[in-house]
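Exam revision sheet. Question 4 asks you to relate a sequence to its structure. Input first:
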Amino acid sequence: MLAHMPSHTPPPVANKEPFTITTLLRNGMLPLTICAIALLIQIGGSEASQWLRYDREGILNGEVWRMITGHLVHLGWPHLLMNLIGLILIWLLFGHLIKRNSWLLIGTISTVGISAGMMFFNPELKWYVGLSGVLHGMFVAGAIVSVKAGYRAELLLLLLLTGKLTWEQVFGPLPGSAEFAGGNVIVDAHLYGAISGLFISLALLAYHSSRRQAT
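Answer key, C-alpha cells:
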C-alpha cells in the first residue's frame, strides 16, 4: 500500500523522516503505551474493567476519566487481541507519516469525540468498552494525511471504510464481529471515531498550511 513515493513535499503535519523500522520504533511510543495499558487493564480483571469502562451514569456523576479509559477496556482477550492487531496494522501503514504530537492529538480527539457522541446521541447506552472506535479515527486521519502526501491507493481504503460504516449503519455489525468480540458491537462508536479522525486531520492540515503561508 506504500509501494510508491509521494510526488511532492509531504504536508507539514507529516513526519519527514524516511520509512524505516527505526523510524517506526522511534515514533511508536503512543501505540506501545496503548498496548501496555490495555494489557494491564485486561490482567486487572473485572474489578479494573468496572472502574474504568465508559459508564454513562458514572460520567454524569463526575467520573469523567471513564470517557478516556473506557476505550482501553475490553470484553476479553479475543476482543483485546483483535484491537491491538488493528492498532499495529494502522501504525505499519501510517505511523511514519504523522508526527508524534499530532498522533497524540488525533487519538485524544477521537477518544473524547466518541464518548461525547455516545453521551449525546446514545443515551440508552449504559456502558461501553473497546478501542475499535478510536482505531477508526486513527485510520481515517492516517489515510487522509497519506493522500495529502501523495499516496493515491489510500483513497481506495477510505472508500472501503465508508462502505463498511454505511453497512453498519444500515444493517448492523459485520457478520461474525460480535461473536469474535464476545459481545454486542456498538457501530455508532465506529462512526463517531471516523468523524473525529476526519475532523482533526483536516484541522491539522489546514492549521499547518495557514502557518506555512503566513511565513
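Marking note for examiners. Residues 1-9 have pLDDT under 50 and may be disordered.
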